[in-house]
Amino acid sequence: MNSLVITRTGTHLTIQDFGRFHYQHLGVSPSGAMDQRIIKELEKIIPLHHNQFIEFAYVGPSIKVKEGSVKVCVGGNCNINIQKNNGTQIICQPYKSINLFEGDELNIHNTIDSVYGYIAVEHGLGLDPCLKSFSTDTKAGIGSINRPLKVDDTFEILKDVSSWDLLSMPNPAYKKETNFKVHPGPQLQFFTDQALQSFISSTFTISAQSDRMGIRLKGEAILSSQSHDILSEGILPGSIQVPSDGQPIVLMRDIPCTGGYPKIAILNGEDISKISQLPPGSQITFDLQTIY
Amino acid sequence: MYFKGINSYGDRGMILDFGDDSSKSISLEVNKAFSSISNLRLPLLNIIPSFNKIVIIFENSEIRDQNKETITLEMSDIKFQSHKSANKTWKIPACYDESFALDLKLIQRLHQITKEEIINLHTSESYYTYYIGFMPGFPYLGDIPSQLITPRLATPRIKIPARSIGIAKNHTCIYPKISPGGWNIIGQIPFDIFDLQNPNPSLFLPGDKVSFYSVSNKEFQQIQKKHFSINELIKEYSS
Questions:
Q1: Domain end (from A107, A124, A157)
Q2: Interval A81-100: pLDDT, tens
Q3: Which of A94, A113, A182, A246 has the smallest set of CB atoms within 10 Å of its CB?
Q4: CB A48 within 8 Å of CB A152
């Protein structure tokens, strides 16, 4: 038997995978890792991850091997060290697999100039899927673990490490993007040319009130000439909705399944991962593609 | 026919547009299209019906574009006139006792009607399930009798008890679990309507018909004690 225990949670520690699909018509959000590029990258290093990734935001957790041994890999831009069972300390790098033995403690510090990071564990964390996904949606209380992880949460990994060989990939060092090409939203016509002009010429600041549901922006108010209240309709991650205060919200992975605010634009699907990594205070701009 | 056409929604989504209004006949058409497209078993990630739209998302823009023609063809083939459907008709026990009906007094004052009249009105109609949204398993039912039409609470409640029956504008609903919310609460049902352990987790589906019948607090407690599963509820309360 091999087991891991959480000894320090860091912030917003949850289990995530590539998303929970086919249930949004029943009010279930897709959820999934905020930055899907990283878990795809970790897949190359820990192919037997069983879709059970640990996601952290800003500050990573400490995880100790209670019994046996496990192979893990951390993804993201963060400092990592291991407190070995013999008292020594080793500095580690992300995107390099790490063998951990009984008593070893993996410590992940703050994410550097980014928000989210991930841990993949070989053979997964011994969890059962919930509605065909391991992702946690804390607002709806859905997931193989339906809440954020806590200290003393213990995971039993039934299979032993397949090989002690270590694998590493170059750190992808994703370029930080702050200008996003967006597609017209379903309610583009709710906004005058002047409002659209100010949407694409303004700089918006990412607010600290952002989370897995949405990134709140602060900037010049973008007001609809028609209404900020529409009949609720299905919404997709990446949509930029504008409530009556004119401050846009970029909807993220824990999206409400339907929404009643007009959507001025929507990001490219792949940019959802990119924007998720911009810390509060970051300044961004939008470039509206005219594809119609 | 209300269907207006298909628009892109970002690089991997599309919206089927049924206009800007909301009515039961529009919703019947939406839900007919929803079940027809669902039955095509296309490689889509989510298909989300609402009052007058259907949003579909695919893995990427190539798959979206490859399937657009199939969906367009299906929409031109659907016989919106025939109302044959696989939907269920539900008769749901509801307790309207003061202990559950947190806003009954407010509605009595607003409409100058008695508690009995509210119960008679709310149980008089067979409601149509427009769609499921807001939270897992939450049905938007309607339309309620015009004498009961009530605006949402000016200040939403922070915690609405699970299984509460609400009314707002011309709709009625059931809260599957404890939640913040702004609907006026008029009663409670004695069982859960969303079960994560079931592969079909939601008791209600878009297009289902739902009516309520009034039960005493004692009957309510008795049903509650049975802890029905979704499959048992289907046998017991639907046809």
A1: A157
A2: 999 999 999 999 999 999 99
A3: A113
A4: no
Task: Provide the CA A211 distance to its chain's centre, in angstroms.
Answer: 9
pLDDT tens sequence across B211-227: 999 999 999 999 999 99
Domain that holds residue A14: 2-157
Q: Which amino acid belongs to residue B32?
A: K
A-B interface: how many C-beta pairs under 8 angstroms? 109
pTM: 0.94
Give the domain CATH number at A207. Answer: 2.40.100.10
Which residues of B fall within a CB distance of 8 Å from A26?
Answer: 132, 136-137, 194, 201-202, 205
Domains of chain B: 5-77 (3.30.1360.40), 89-237 (2.40.100.10)
Q: Of A225, A227, A255, A226, which Cα lies nearest the Cα of A240?
A: A255
- C-alpha of A24 from chain center: 19
d(CA B15, CA B171) in angstroms, rounded, equals: 24
Cβ–Cβ gap A268/B13 under 8 Å:
no
Using CB atoms, which residue from B15, B55, B136 is nearest to A26? B136
ipTM exceeding the 0.90 mark = yes
Say yes or no: A21 and A97 in one domain: yes
Cα gap B44→A268, rounded to integer Å = 17
CB contact under 8 A, A26 and B137: yes
Is the Cα torsion angle A285, A207, A32, A234 positive or negative in sign? Answer: negative
